[in-house]
Task: inverse folding
């Protein structure tokens, strides 16, 4: 715990370790974050129900066409939601406690425009969190119903959405940085 406090104190040394992310965190970010957590909890609930109700080995891995190529215990459905909840938790912690000035930005941030630029990057962060939650819920539902037709297309659409979000918000932030 002491190490975490030390890390947080060097995050924003000018403020004595008090991170001021509330300057960048908006109602839009809160809505995105809440939606992502609701979807993650739904995924976990579906996985718990599946691990209790599904019998015998189930298909847990599929090729791009939706054909099963890996089998396991129904309890293995819990892995993806749990791992992704840890991931989303980490993203949420970063969004709330790590000062954006410590983030690796794709351009040098204009000090006078930092509030809008960091707000844009927070939008990217929480939008990605929501997209991950949608993907996990979709994949958990497919596994629960053992209907994986379209998993390849679903995965491609997820990747396009994720990279589209990264590119779009970086461009928006870059433009806001230059105004």
Result:
């Amino acid at each position: 715990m002491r190490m975490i406090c030390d890390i947080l104190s060097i995050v924003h040394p000018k403020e004595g370790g008090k991170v001021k992310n509330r300057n960048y965190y908006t109602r839009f970010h809160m809505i995105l974050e809440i939606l992502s957590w609701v979807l993650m909890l739904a995924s976990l609930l579906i996985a718990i129900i599946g691990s209790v109700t599904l019998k015998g080995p189930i298909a847990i891995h599929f090729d791009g066409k939706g054909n099963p190529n890996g089998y396991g215990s129904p309890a293995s459905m819990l892995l993806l939601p749990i791992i992704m909840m840890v991931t989303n938790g980490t993203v949420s912690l970063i969004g709330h406690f790590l000062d954006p000035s410590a983030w690796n930005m794709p351009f040098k941030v204009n000090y006078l425009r930092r509030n809008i630029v960091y707000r844009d990057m927070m939008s990217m962060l929480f939008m990605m969190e929501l997209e991950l939650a949608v993907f996990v819920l979709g994949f958990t539902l497919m596994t629960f119903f053992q209907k994986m037709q379209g998993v390849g297309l679903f995965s491609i659409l997820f990747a396009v959405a994720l990279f589209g979000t990264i590119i779009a918000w970086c461009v928006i932030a870059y433009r806001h940085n230059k105004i």
The helical segments are 2-11, 27-53, 79-97, 114-145, 151-178. The chain is about 65% helix and 5% strand. Strands lie at 58-62, 68-72.
